[in-house]
What does this fold into?
Amino acid sequence: MRNIIQLLIIFPIVVSLGIMQDKSNNLQVLEFESERNLKKYMKTVSKDLGVKCKYCHDLNDKSIDTDHKKIAREMMRMQMDLNKSFFALLGDSLHMHGEITQISCWTCHRGTNEPQTVRPKE
It folds into this structure.
């Protein structure tokens, strides 16, 4: 019985420490309620840019700022600002979709690490 009581006391402490260690450090632009949602978003960005995590992150310590990460932050701020201040005002003119038009990394990058500024020749 004593062991069960000790386990009931220690288990929540161990779990909370694990959750605290799992929290991301140095998030300056993104706000996510869970690590899972953050990782899902980052996978989308990775696909939109056609890059792996190491393109922006130091894999030994992902909280370290790199040049690509600084650029990505500015691009994310631009994207959020446009979605919030411009596209939110437009709404859905056809009233066909539950969601309004939004831009993403894909809008300009199309799976490449450099934005496509010129239409491809046919």
Summary: The longest helix spans residues 67-90.
